[in-house]
Design goal:
alpha+beta; five-stranded mixed β-sheet; 67% helix
Length: 375
Amino acid sequence: MQSYKLDLKNRHRVYFDLLIISVVIIILTVIHYTTYHYTMNYHIMLQFAYYLPVIYAAMRFGLVGGIISGLSITLLILPFMTYFNTMAMASSAMLTQWVEIGLINGIGWLTGFLIEQERKASRKHQLALQIQKELVEKLKRESIERERLQREIRQTERLTALGHLSAGLAHEIRNPLGIMKVSIQLLAQDKRDDREVLEYCRVLLEECERLNRLVSEFLSFARPKELVREKIKLGKLLEEGVSLIQPALRQHQIELSQTRGQVDDCVVEVDSDQIKQVILNILLNAIDAQGEGGRILLEGIQQEDFVGFAVSDKGRGIPPDILPYIYDPFFTTKEKGTGLGLSVVHRILDQHSGKIFVSNRSERGTRVEILLPPS
């Protein structure tokens, strides 16, 4: 609509300029013919005024404007020149008038030619500026992409080093941990009548279980399973992931709102167990951030050549100075967190050529986007 209004305005401007040029030329010509009895010097001086419409026409319409306006003046003034010639005017005066007509045409053509050259140079300059701008934007995009790749490389290096460390450490911890757990259970059976001892045993068993879960996460992180890919609809994966998270939602009295749309029918070739682990980890993080009550939004998204889902909560969000470290193993702001949730998610998505984006929402809370290549 804006472009149409602009074209209409330009068209009106062209018509207005043509009208002004034509009116000025006609008025000057009429003055010539109505003052035919004046001296030749008067008409020669009057011809100087033709330079104005000719130069303006050349500046406005280029070489074509200069040529047409000059020829139009010549055709209009030619009968008047012939009339003076028949009256046996001085040859020098007639020559001066003809030279003046020639100059009017020459000035029109020359001005139009120079204007067109200037316009060509201006267009080349604008094109060069546009190319320069595009190159700058391309360099910015490449710089951003290079920084992202460097971050991923550093992340991969950290994960690799941690993987080797965790594998050995987890095995060394699990064996004595099992012995401790069995010993505590036997002690609890022997001291069934001693409430204080039973309470201590209960606490110890809970801590053993927590430590065992941590070791299991280490092992899963350090020795990821080989992918067992299968083609499956994204909607089915989301449904199965949501069904697994329902008990946690009810426990925290949180409503899960879903707007998945057309992505449900998109087919992805993935290891369904690992992608369901991704869904669970992201939803559990949202529940932890949301706290008691409230609502979490799960929506399907499509970006370029990827499909996936986004989870948004209304928690406190992530401080900007912490965002760069959220994928680092063991980095956590939770009291009982292991700091491996997003690290595992990042690794699984890397194996699937997927992407993860975490950002703070403008109003409140956090938005996590998970993207996978469609099959």
